[in-house]
Structures are given as C-alpha cells and as structure tokens.
Amino acid sequence: MLLLNGDTYFAVDLDRLKDFATRNAADIAFSLFETNDRVRYMGMDLDTQGQILQLEGRDRSPHLANGGVYWLSPDAFREQAAAVERPQSLETDLFPALLRAGRKLYGRAFTGTFIDIGVPDDFRRAQDLLPSAGRVGHASC
C-alpha cells in the first residue's frame, strides 16, 4: 500500500518505488531526497543495496532524508500495532521500533521536486511551483 505524509509534496515515480520495494521484499520502502539540512529532516544511512542501517544518519552533507512517500507491505505494522498503548509518531516511534525489530526497511533516492508545505516559506513556494495550489478549494498536494 502507499502512505503519504500530509504536509509534503514529493514528485516520486511510484512505479519505481513499488518495483524497488518488491525487488527487495521490503516491509517499508522510503522515498528519499538529498539535502544539506541536518536539523529539519531525518537523515538515513543505507547499505549498498538500499537497506536502512540507521534512521538518524551520520554527519555528512549532503545526506539522504525521508521524503514522506512510503510503499508498505500489508504486514509491516501488524505486530507493532498490536503493542501500541498510546498515540505514536511514525518517524520517531514506529519506524525506529520496526528497525529494531528486524523489519526490512529500504530507501531509494529520487530527484523530483520536494516541498515541505507545513513550513510557511515552502507553502508559498509550492503555490508558485504547483499550478493548481493557489486556487481556492483545490488541493493538489
């Protein structure tokens, strides 16, 4: 299944993400983008096949960061969901728990436009880059 963050726009080739996930039998395949901003975005360290080794990443720039577009196996969260007793964050609670549990998390870099529309400056930028974003009553993200 496909899962998207609601406050970002990332032009990802979904067929390539799905093929990458299938080829690696990934529980979760992350779409990644390259950035120099180590504070704002979760960096990731990958092996040569794209398997995620750690979610925080090393101190290097540019680094690969989570783009908020995920291809999920239907069973990815099944065991973890049964153990949830309180609201949890996908990025700070669930993904690290799945990695610790030995789930197969993979990441693939994409070069499409990435905009974090949850930040005022990028929201304004999105209105210029995405033709229908500025129209009232029509959301394209």
Structure description:
This protein has 141 residues and is of the alpha+beta class. The protein has one domain (2-128): Spore Coat Polysaccharide Biosynthesis Protein SpsA, Chain A (Alpha-Beta Complex), CATH 3.90.550. The protein is built from 4 helices and 8 strands, in the order ββαββββααββα. It has helices at 14-23, 78-82, 90-100, 120-129; strands spanning 2-4, 8-10, 28-35, 45-46, 52-54, 63-72, 105-109, 114-116. The strands form 3 sheets. The chain has a 4-stranded mixed sheet. Strands 2-8 form a two-stranded antiparallel ribbon. β4 (45-46) and β5 (52-54) form a beta hairpin. The longest helix is centred in the C-terminal third of the chain and has 11 residues, at 90-100. It is globular. The two termini are 18 Å apart. 28% of the residues are buried.
Features:
disordered C terminus, 141 residues, 4 helices, Spore Coat Polysaccharide Biosynthesis Protein SpsA, Chain A, 4-stranded mixed β-sheet, alpha+beta, two-stranded antiparallel ribbon
Architecture blueprint of SSEs:
Layout: E1 2-4, E2 8-10, H1 14-23, E3 28-35, E4 45-46, E5 52-54, E6 63-72, H2 78-82, H3 90-100, E7 105-109, E8 114-116, H4 120-129
Parallel strand pairs: 3-7
Antiparallel strand pairs: 1-6, 2-8, 3-6, 4-5
Tell me the Rg in angstroms. Answer: 16 Å
- What sort of overall outline do the alpha carbons produce when their principal axes are compared? globular
Instruction: State the distance separating the first and last CA atoms.
Output: 18 Å
CATH class division: Alpha Beta
Mean pLDDT over the full residue set:
83
User: Into how many domains do the coordinates divide?
Assistant: 1
Record field, number of beta strands: 8
**In what order do the strands lie side by side in the largest sheet?**
1-6-3-7
Can you give the helix content as a percent range? 25-40%
Q: Order of SSEs, N→C?
A: EEHEEEEHHEEH
Q: What count of helical segments does DSSP give? A: 4
Low-confidence stretches: 134-141
Q: Strand count, sense and closure of the main sheet?
A: 4 strands, mixed
What fraction of residues sit in β-strands?
A: 25-35%
The helix/strand class is alpha+beta
Q: What is the name of the CATH topology?
A: Spore Coat Polysaccharide Biosynthesis Protein SpsA, Chain A
